[in-house]
Design brief:
The termini are far apart. The N terminus is likely disordered. Strands 3, 4, 5, 6 and 7 form a five-stranded antiparallel β-sheet that branches. A two-stranded antiparallel ribbon has the order 1-2. By secondary structure, the protein is α+β, with helices and mostly antiparallel strands.
Length: about 170
């Protein structure tokens, strides 16, 4: 039975492909939750690059997921957590535009629905800026950001997606 659990597609396994695994803790914090969300959305971003359509990617948000945690001081395995996710709303990637990327001054963002909020993160997962929008389009001034790579989380009507932007 245990072997079958390790072969299920799921959150921990898929994140291992991207960045070496999901952090496991006995307690949680808002930073940890953001890291987990960023890694999940990054995985979905890579699925899009591989050619999966938005319905196939949305399928990754339902089903059974398992996480195996290891002690920090050894490779001893700890009990895994198992959770069922019924479904989530799917962000419509085909109707979202952000340009130019790389950006030098202003980044234009457009979506078919109202954008509630945009959150900008550094690659370390730290929140840099939170911007309320409440419109279908916005211009972001990138002049206050240093050159580098940032993650742009767009939240709209309970849906969210994360995009990579490059500041030149």
């Amino acid at each position: 039975m245990e072997e079958a659990l390790f072969n299920l597609k799921g959150f921990a396994h898929t994140n291992n492909i991207i960045n070496g695994g999901l952090e496991c803790r006995s307690s949680s914090s808002s930073v940890f939750i953001v890291k987990a969300a960023l890694r999940s959305d990054l995985y979905k971003y890579y699925l899009g690059i591989l050619g999966l359509n938005s319905n196939q990617i949305a399928g990754e948000d339902s089903g059974q997921y398992t996480t195996t945690c290891f002690q920090e001081t050894s490779n001893a395995m700890q009990d895994y957590q198992s959770a069922n996710v019924l479904a989530t709303k799917c962000f419509d990637l085909e109707n979202f535009i952000y340009s130019p990327n790389p950006v030098q001054e202003n980044l234009t963002i457009q979506y078919k629905k109202n954008i509630d909020q945009i959150v900008i993160y550094g690659l370390d997962g730290k929140e840099i800026q939170k911007i309320p929008i409440q419109k279908t389009s916005a211009e972001l001034d990138s002049n206050k950001f240093e050159k580098g790579i940032y993650l742009l989380k767009v939240i709209s009507e309970g849906e969210s997606a994360i995009f990579r932007i490059i500041k030149n």
